[in-house]
Amino acid sequence: MTADLSILSLITNASVLVQLVLLLLLIASLFSWNVIFQKRRMLANARVEAEEFEEKFWSGGDLSNLYNQVTSGRHGSSGLAVIFEAGFKEFARLRKQEGVDPRTVLEGAQRAMRVALSRETDKLELHLPFLATVGSTSPYVGLFGTVWGIMNSFRALGNVKQATIAMVAPGIAEALVATAMGLFAAIPAVIGYNRFNTELERLINRYETFSEEFASILQRQAHK
Predict the structure, then answer these.
(1) Is 24 exposed, middle or buried (0-12, 13-18, 19+ CB in 10 A)?
(2) Residue 207 lies in a domain
(3) What is the pTM of this model?
């Protein structure tokens, strides 16, 4: 009699612990794909908003008008627009105060931009550690299910007088499904994490460069 080695049959005939491992890996994989799609859309929107805002910023228009546009929500609510709004708002507030020297005004604006940059970085990095965790632990979780399944297969052999490949093959196949599922969950998570981490570094560098350039502009205005 030939054993049914289809994937569905192997899963349904696996031990309870192996099935729990497979369920855990399936849930981790589904959450990973959800994070991947969300993060891809978030970073794409952030790049587009950064390009649009930089084009408007360097067009030579009045910064006060640009600030009014940002506060009205015409340039999004994240990224460079938030950093610009935080810096210009603090700059304008300190400059209106009497007896505040230009250096203090500039330092206040830079401090506000650093805080805004830190918050934007936290938003962009949201859920990235989850991808890293899934990518690094899923193969080991799958391996645990495989080892457990193989142990059960060899334990069952102790109850028979004559062992054959046909008897042990289904059990080993069931166990190896756990390894395959672990890799299925880990590979997309690792690829997504590495790609998003690279894109995130570029975007943060862009934000930092803008902050420095904007600080230089504010420095010239502070000494007028």
Answers:
(1) middle
(2) yes
(3) 0.81
The residue with tokens 């590495």 is: 194
217: Cβ contacts below 8 Å, ≥ 6 apart: 63
In this structure, is residue 139 part of a structural domain? yes
Residue 1 lies in a domain: no
CA atoms of 177 and 149, how far apart (whole Å): 10
Identity of residue 73: G
**Domain assignment present for 12:** yes
Q: CA-CA distance, 57 to 220, in Å (whole number)? A: 16
pLDDT, tens digit, 9 for 90 and up, residues 126-183? 999 999 999 999 999 999 988 888 887 777 666 666 656 666 666 777 788 889 999 9
- Burial class from Cβ neighbours inside 10 Å (0-12, 13-18, 19+) for residue 149 reads buried
How many domains would you assign to the chain?
A: 1
Rounded distance between C-alpha atoms, residue 19 and residue 23, angstroms: 6
3-class DSSP assignment, residue 100: coil
Structural domain including 158 reads 7-222
